[in-house]
Amino acid sequence: MNLPLFIARRYFVSKKKQNIINIISAISVGGIIVGTMALIIVLSVFNGFQSLINTFFSSFDPDLKISPVEGKMFDPKEFDFEKIKSLPGVVHYAEIIEEVALLKYGTQTYAAVVKGVPENFQKYTIIDSLIIDGKFILENQGINYTVVGQGVAYNLGIRPEFTDPLLLYVPKKGKQVSVNPARAINHNYIFPSGVFAVLEEIDAKYIIVSHKFAAELFESDDQVSTVEIGLAKDINPKKIQNEIEKILGSSFPREKQIPATRPDF
Predict the structure, then answer these.
(1) What is the pLDDT of residues 216-263, one digit of tens each?
(2) CA geometry: angle at 142 spanning 137 and 148, to 5°?
(3) What is the domain partition of the chain in residue ranges?
(4) How far apart are the C-alpha atoms of 8 and 68, rounded to whole Å?
């Protein structure tokens, strides 16, 4: 007979005159079961939160983001990005402009990051599912529109139903502040078309505009802030990243954004 099993049975189910041993054994087993269940439940909740947050980030961010080592912008034509586009597993390529601007809506002002995105932005993100008010429209019949984060909309009092334009102010490229500061500032207006909600730190930071509008506002010409890459589901992101590093060299840091749960393309 198995000795450990015999001893366990002997003291777990003992005679009535040793009932106190049964009570102590039951309490011990119950304590272990409750503690184990509590630990499993807590860890499952934390894992669920992590997956949820990763899903939110993946809704707005790409699989890979390429930024320059020095400076805010670079010209993609100076590098072999055509080769990157043709890499197996690369399904989406987007040139992005990101700069800070001062927003003014009515009497309210607020600083936010203007993100100029190309037409395929909806294809490698699920921004449509994040719209909580209005629609995702960036340009229609020659009129420029913007989709703002929920935090930005709250601070400025923006509602897509309102017809007031949103004013954007940025410093002119290469201009120094003079006696007349207005000459050193670019400004333009745009109409809110929708409000999106991802996470508070993103909602209170970003507004999304068309790439063309951002290029004109910031006078960036052919320069961009980042290049965002969307990958196929069955592709190893680290492998693609290593291949991109070999193509671009040391001009770009080893910076990546690879969400744990990627959106459907």
Answers:
(1) 999 988 899 999 888 888 888 888 888 888 888 766 655 444 333 333
(2) 30
(3) 3-58, 64-251
(4) 66
